[in-house]
Amino acid sequence: MEHLRLELRLILRTAFHTTGNRRRWGADKALAMSADGRYVIPATTLKGVLRDRAEALLRVWGQPVCTGPMPETMCADLNSLCLACQVFGHPQRPSPLRFQDGHFAGDVGTLIRSGVSISRQRHATLPHRLFFVETTEPGPLTCLAICEGYFPDRAAAYRAAALVALAVRWISAIGGGRTRGLGWLERGEVEPTLNDNRFYKRNPIPQAELEALWRTWSGGSNVAEG
Ligand SMILES: [Zn+2]
Hints:
Bound molecules: zinc ion
Shape: globular
Largest sheet: 7 strands, antiparallel
Order of helices and strands: EEHHEEEEEHEEH
């Protein structure tokens, strides 16, 4: 077994919002918080946007990818799951990767912003649709997240590392309110490491190994560079 650990670093250039389930006076939508009272990018939000990006890229490259999230339209043959299902999970085959909530580096203040719902069809302001959203302070903000898991062999761990690293590079925005300019990313970075059973230390996965997989998936072009 190989233990893969991915350290994700997202640099946001704008304020961020994901609606949590707590209440805050004066806000219709309060920011998501962890149990220990820190503002977070929830693991489900992170995993969702990474899967979405990964699937979009694989499709562009002509790789077979099923269509979620309805179980009926996802991979039917459990013995030949598509790459997205292998890495991010399938209703009957949970992902080997466990995503943790992303935490913002340092102390992050928050703001209450007002918004107005706009009808996209009529391009008109709907009456009585003023709302208040709690967001983080304006960027730049750094969010750190970890995901890790066990894989049967090194090749499977490399594939997962390469797909997540690829998706992280291609996230342009995360969370709610993107059309209002919230959650836009400057860049995303990943540091993948594997365990070393003999010495109990972690070995970085060379960038060249990830790039080789990207090249294979893209059919030999250099689309993933940058
Ligand atoms: Zn699938």
